[in-house]
Design brief:
The chain is an alpha/beta fold. The protein is 19% helix and 28% strand. It is elongated.
């Protein structure tokens, strides 16, 4: 079984690449939403695959990263 590995910026030993999922009910503009996006961006920059599932995202009322393809955001259902 093969696995993907990324190198830690502060270490020479590789670490496994993870698939990380965030669940958030509404990706509007607010402090909790900013926190979710910042955590997702940080993990993505370390080489992890990040997906955010939400039940609502208004493209006219959300942060750029939730709209422009920087992050993989998937809208599913109308409630979480």
């Amino acid at each position: 079984m093969s696995s993907s590995y990324t190198k830690s910026p502060t270490s020479t030993s590789p670490r496994p690449r993870r698939n990380i999922i965030f669940l958030h009910p509404d990706l509007g503009i607010g402090g909790a939403e900013r926190l979710i996006l910042d955590a997702a961006l940080s993990l993505q920059s370390l080489g992890h695959v990040v997906t955010i599932y939400t039940s609502h995202r208004d493209p006219t009322h959300c942060f750029d990263e939730a709209r422009d393809g920087t992050l993989d955001v998937r809208v599913r259902g109308d409630t979480l």
